[in-house]
């Protein structure tokens, strides 16, 4: 049964976004809000405490697999809205994160941002959609979703007026009418990815709380440049991602820290998996956007500031995964840095499952790398460390993944449509 009305469709065609009201049952909203605060290890009742690690720029919360997130992802009404847009019910759901954008101030300088999650120089512009679920009522000045309505119809004509070597994902917003979309708790905003978009400066006293959810046809893999056929390995990887998610929480409980700290620690480990890349020009900070401009093989290239670091005029260090995804020529790997971040285990916030002696022994075990314990040749991940703890200290952790409905199993790819 369709959930988008004719008016919704007309609005969508015209503006490139729409609002689906009451997208999920009301109790689901508070469940995600609670989960976000727990993940961050912070309290909604203490505004002084809303800032700092592990909150990421733009208020991003890298929480992906909590049951509360899954309960929303497998809501039939949301699935049907995306099915109406794509013209097929055979969809896969994204494993997107959450957002807590606190009030702007001395501890938080999110003035808002505008970008694309596609390469706006590719023709034809790929058809992609994205979505954000408002977890609480969000006023226009509260740092919620913002976009340039109708821009999906004008992007190509606008691009013809811009420098050919403009950054493909970061528009110059001069002359654009950016609109902040207020919403009620339970509204799902769905937008066409050709709209320049982001979230805004929060000028209110309340945090903005949201969950990102989008869907796309199964067996497709999205890249910045568009879609390509997914492989059986992609599908299996999605299922593994869902199945292995509980290891991160198990590790947090072992260490006695909020899950967000473990996620941050593992992310830093991956980020410290660095390689060297040679470029032809010094990296220059590009305007006020989080990108560098350089040249590679005679072409202007824009590189994300948070993924690369200049070493000298013609050398940079890049995260290995980023360098591979961007097709950067890897000159050499910097293996010895990979385990540095893993030593940064934060002090326990609550009673850890590991004893003080086990906690003290952990960094030295981890420093030996997973290979030393027959746990694979890559970097440590949550699963590897939990297996290490089980083997070394005889623990038995709960690793039940989020429960899926029949619809949810198809949206994950664990069952075929
Ligand atoms: O926080 C928002 O509403 C926008 C997030 C965003 O820009 C994105 O998901 O690409």
Report on this model:
By secondary structure, the protein is α+β, with helices and mostly antiparallel strands. It folds into three domains: 6-230, Jelly Rolls (Sandwich); 248-271 and 339-393, no CATH class; 274-337, SH3 type barrels (Roll). 29% of the residues lie in helices and 20% in strands. Strands 1-8-5-10-4-2 form a six-stranded antiparallel sheet. Strands 18-19-14-20 form a four-stranded antiparallel sheet. Helix 7 crosses helix 8 (259-271). The chain is globular. It starts with 5 loop residues before the first helix and ends in a 5-residue tail after the last helix.
Overall tally of domains: 3
Q: Any ligands, ions or cofactors bound here, and which?
A: 2-oxoglutaric acid
What is the makeup of the main sheet?
Answer: 6 strands, antiparallel
Helix content: 25-40%
Number of helices: 12
Anisotropy-based shape: globular
Please tell me the CATH architecture of the largest domain by its name.
Sandwich
Estimated radius of gyration: 22 Å
The CA-CA distance between the termini, in Å, is 17 Å
> How are the strands of the largest sheet arranged?
1-8-5-10-4-2
* Uncertain parts: none
Structural class: alpha+beta
**Average residue pLDDT:** 94
Q: According to CATH, what is the topology of the largest domain?
A: Jelly Rolls
According to DSSP, the number of beta strands is 20
């Amino acid at each position: 049964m369709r959930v988008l009305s004719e008016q919704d469709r007309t609005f969508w065609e015209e503006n490139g976004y729409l609002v689906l009201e009451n997208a999920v049952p009301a109790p689901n909203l508070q469940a995600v809000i609670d989960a976000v605060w727990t993940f961050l290890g912070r309290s909604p009742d203490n505004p002084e405490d809303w800032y700092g690690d592990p909150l990421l720029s733009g208020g991003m919360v890298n929480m992906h697999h909590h049951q509360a997130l899954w309960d929303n992802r497998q809501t039939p009404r949301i699935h049907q809205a995306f099915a109406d847009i794509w013209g097929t019910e055979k969809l896969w759901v994204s494993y997107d994160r959450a957002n807590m954008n606190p009030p702007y101030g001395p501890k938080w300088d999110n003035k808002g941002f505008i970008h694309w999650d596609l390469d706006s120089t590719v023709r034809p512009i790929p058809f992609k959609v994205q979505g954000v679920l408002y977890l609480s009522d969000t006023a226009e000045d509260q740092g919620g979703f913002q976009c340039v309505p109708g821009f999906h119809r004008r992007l190509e004509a606008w691009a013809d007026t811009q420098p050919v070597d403009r950054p493909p994902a970061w528009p110059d917003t001069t002359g654009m009418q950016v609109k902040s979309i207020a919403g009620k708790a339970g509204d799902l905003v769905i937008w066409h990815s050709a709209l320049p978009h982001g979230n805004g400066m929060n000028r209110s006293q309340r945090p903005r709380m949201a969950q990102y959810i989008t869907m796309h046809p199964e067996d497709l893999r999205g890249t910045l440049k568009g879609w390509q056929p997914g492989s059986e390995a992609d599908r299996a990887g999605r299922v593994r991602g869902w199945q292995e998610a509980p290891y991160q929480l198990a590790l947090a409980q072992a260490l006695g820290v909020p899950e967000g700290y473990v996620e941050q620690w593992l992310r830093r480990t991956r980020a410290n998996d660095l390689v060297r890349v040679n470029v032809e020009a010094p990296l220059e900070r590009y305007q006020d956007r989080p990108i560098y401009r350089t040249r590679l093989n005679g072409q202007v290239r824009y590189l994300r500031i948070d993924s690369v670091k200049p070493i000298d005029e013609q050398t940079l260090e890049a995260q290995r995964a980023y360098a591979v995804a961007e097709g950067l020529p890897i000159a050499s790997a910097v293996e010895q840095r990979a385990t540095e971040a893993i030593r940064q285990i934060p002090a326990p916030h609550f009673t850890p499952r590991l004893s003080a002696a086990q906690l003290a022994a952990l960094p030295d075990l981890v420093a030996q790398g997973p290979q030393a314990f027959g746990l694979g040749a890559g970097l440590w991940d949550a699963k590897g460390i939990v297996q290490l703890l089980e083997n070394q200290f005889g623990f038995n952790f709960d690793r039940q993944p989020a429960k899926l409905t029949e619809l949810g199993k198809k949206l994950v790819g664990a069952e075929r449509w």
